[in-house]
Design goal:
Three copies of one chain form a homotrimer. Chain A is an alpha+beta fold and 356 residues long. Chain A is 21% helix and 29% strand. Chain A has nine helices and twelve strands. Chain A has helices at 2-10, 36-46, 51-54, 56-61, 71-86, 193-196, 221-230, 241-244, 256-266, and strands spanning 25-27, 32-33, 90-101, 110-122, 128-138, 144-155, 210-212, 217-218, 276-285, 294-306, 313-324, 344-355. In chain A, strands 1, 2, 3, 4, 5, 6, 7, 8, 9, 10, 11 and 12 form a twelve-stranded antiparallel β-sheet that branches. In chain A, a hairpin with a 5-residue loop joins strand 4 (110-122) and strand 5 (128-138). In chain A, helix 2 (36-46) packs antiparallel against helix 7 (221-230). The longest helix of chain A is centred in the first third of the chain and has 16 residues, at 71-86. Chains A and C meet through helix 1, strand 2, helix 2, helix 7 and helix 8 of A and helix 2, helix 4, helix 6, strand 7 and strand 8 of C. Chains A, B, C: It comes from Kiloniella antarctica. Chains A, B, C: This is MaoC family dehydratase. Chains A, B, C: InterPro entries: HotDog_dom_sf (IPR029069), MC_hydratase (IPR048274), MCH/BMMD (IPR052342), Thiol_ester_hydratase_Rv0216 (IPR016790).
Chain lengths: 356, 356, 356
């Protein structure tokens, strides 16, 4: 019987809502050294063409030592670390805010992630609650690579357990310009439009402008599984068809971040010079995606940010929308009842640097 | 309305036949640093076993600094760059000629591609035309890695637009020996048959000899999509099942280069010592392939090329044929009417170095 | 006719039972330099989270120069080299024994494999026989990375050929402690439980303890094909649906090693600190797996090994069982008739280091 007890205790079943308390700090397992192999896989999985992440020579022309790995590869690796502690029993990944990219993540760098619980709110059902965490990924020198807040709906272990005091953090709707961390040596004064793929620069984009990114890509099971494992994200719903075929959707669910990366890569066509992401202002996976779905995307320019001391670059705040199995032109963002159109799967708000 | 105009102008829809003119030079976007990660993916996608590209030690035994990436990985990367400018509106990729491999492409090298329009011919329908381009990929030192001609059938924007003067370039049927670029330090005097996998060397092959490569490999959607994205090739027909399921074939079409790499990898069995490709003399994708197809291949020795000043190596001109879903032994190249047998998908003519 | 003869002789059809003789030594083709790209693919294919193989910094904290590639990636590469000489005509891969891991395999190292025939036994049918080989993979300095014995059932070319003398090697049931090769500089005195993912160390595990690893993963065709090609393993049954759909199982068969790696990766949940494999004591692929199958795993602690001179680490001998499409809790290892339960696919016995 001793042995049976050991079985229960060694295997992790993930935290439930009751296991979180305000201010709790979690150091996540498995630091991760990223490599040019990870970037190659990222390219194979999404087909990004932004020159900064594709060419060491181009990166050097902007003042960096070489190409960093893609911003969203960094995001997914940081996110992946948090899953087994934060969202293994999550029902839904509800939103993102206050995401700030710090120093670039280079091949050879090792990233370690920690999270802090910054909010808790039990749902009225008494069966679930919302957990807010700020997660931070640092490199081997302790420099912040990415910090962001996300909130997830997590199951309670027991509906009878007492409710925690409700604390909903006061999150900024938009990351402040003063919180941006511009890579020290980055300069766009020698930015080469031809190599980057477009002559449209910061001045050419207008608030309210909508850019439909033309192409669509169909997702295969092997692709999203390989991607999600690359990030060491172990959420069960992405991998186990034996149980998921009997589950909520009758099939495996695709990691929401996979759709972010597909949409960002599609956005190259029309936003070629949107090279380096500064901030994730917000984001929601508004509907699930499954293998076989075809993803399309459009962008809307929400804001133009000028840095008075920089005449080589500015920033754009962009709303990136992904739609499935439907033409972007014929898909409204919202239905008449004010809810997302049923084909919209992602509503993502980020800020990106662009040469002036 | 200003904003609406911006939408149209920022997104690229690719060039149409009218957009090309003779002598036009195009610098393609997104330089690409290749890495050992790309080579690992290439291995996972095709399973090549040629020792030169698999082992740094073997490469050093031939006088090189380390293993270059596979010749066809270099080809696909150069090709991929050209797609968004040349063949986004292509109906068919008709042929290749005058392909010359230059300096080896090593992990860490950055490749940049340019193309020049060298021929134009409108089709009698008035709806399409053939564009001939010479594309050249150079490394970060400006050294040519690969130069080749291809011609594609491209849609006209409007059947009413005027026809250009017909110019069909005079292309060599076979790359001349004097145009070969032998890697400077390459020597096969210490070539190890055992490590390479065969004792058959240049002297053992005969003009007219046909080598059936035994194995067959079935293609999966996830594989060809990952391959094609790795090369940053964005041709729509390979990725979008939402539209392609309503299109010409009712499904996604596989990038022709994927079949070249599969056939070349299959050719290891029987041509183990065919280590370094010198030239692509010609090639045609004679029928489309789709996920689920199983590819087989055979080679025919067309020519033996002796370099008088070299007693360590010679070259073979090889016709590499890929067939789908049919035994090579029972598949003739041509039907009785003189047209390709319906199961033949690739007819490719290349020249390769082999130890003497 | 000369030309036709050449066709037959150049293409390898693999060895048949008659082609092996006791003491025969085979140097396998295609040395292989492993890279961080291979490790990235390994991560994408299996999702391992053991810190030693994920983080260069963690590896350095244990005294190594950087992260080696995963132990089973080394195993698969060594195994893959042997296929075209040993098991191309195999009906079944029957077992493993006496597997000893030597020096760690680092990105940049080149592995070369040789095998020696150590046993032969014709089956009573006269149509097949069992071949026992010891295969050894060495790095570019000639240091052993892995040595192991496997035995396979191979077809005879002709049932009429004479039987060899039966020699069944006397294999150890368990690799002896004195045969272990502990990496010279490896120390676990500074082992960080938090980064590794668990506070359970060697002292916390008990002989007889069974750990059910909770999660299940569904295998896709593209995944096992990419994995098997990454290892340059060319066994036909894994790749050719054109013939396999007419074959024994009506579909492609998954490389048994793919299941070993999936099970080992699943075992992270409950055995997070089982960082470095010392030995493969035995193993059998007791039933075939196919795309669409979902793999689960459990471990049973068979033995605890204490190294008197080391107070930083010990070893555990572990029986790793993989099951398909069935809950581990409800799947017995053996049926009432003493045969493996029909859902059990792997019975694998290995020894692994763990911090004390």
């Amino acid at each position: 019987m001793d042995v049976q007890k050991a079985i229960v205790s060694k295997t992790k079943l993930g935290n439930f809502f009751e296991d979180f308390c305000l201010g709790m700090e979690i150091a996540h397992a498995t630091p991760r050294t990223v490599s040019s192999g990870d970037q190659a896989l990222y390219t194979a999985l999404y087909g990004p063409r932004f020159a900064l992440f594709s060419s060491d020579e181009f990166a050097r022309s902007l003042g960096l030592e070489r190409s960093p790995v893609d911003d969203f590869l960094a995001f997914h690796v940081v996110f992946g670390k948090t899953v087994s502690d934060i969202s293994l029993n999550a029902i839904a990944n509800l939103g993102y805010a206050e995401g700030i990219f710090g120093v670039p993540l280079y091949p050879g760098d090792t990233i370690t992630t920690t999270s802090k619980v910054i909010g808790l709110k039990e749902n009225s059902s008494g069966k679930t609650g919302v957990v807010y965490v700020r997660s931070t990924g640092c490199n081997q020198r302790g420099e912040e690579v990415l910090s962001y807040v996300r909130w997830v709906m997590v199951r309670k272990r027991s509906s009878g357990s007492p409710s925690p005091k409700t604390i909903v953090p006061d999150l900024k709707k938009v990351v402040s310009v003063e919180d941006f961390i511009l890579p020290g040596k980055l300069t766009m004064s020698g930015f080469d439009n031809t190599l980057a793929g477009s002559s449209f620069r910061w001045d050419d984009y207008h608030v309210g402008e909508k850019i439909v990114h033309v192409d669509g890509v169909t997702i295969e099971e092997a692709e999203h599984q390989m991607a999600t494992r690359l990030y060491q994200n172990t959420a069960k719903v992405h991998f186990n068809n034996h149980t998921e075929s009997q589950g909520r959707f009758g099939k495996r669910l695709i990691y929401g971040g996979h759709v972010i990366s597909l949409a960002r890569s599609l956005s190259f066509n029309g936003m070629e010079n949107a090279v380096k992401i500064m901030a994730i202002n917000g984001g929601a996976h508004v509907a699930p995606t499954f293998a076989g779905d075809t993803i399309y995307a459009w962008s809307e320019i929400l804001e133009k940010i000028d840095f008075p001391e920089r005449n080589d670059l500015g920033a754009l705040r962009v709303r990136l929308i992904a739609v499935k199995n439907n033409n972007c032109e014929s898909t409204p963002l919202m239905d008449e009842d004010g809810r997302y159109h049923s084909d919209v799967v992602l509503d993502f708000d980020y800020t990106v640097l662009m040469p002036k």
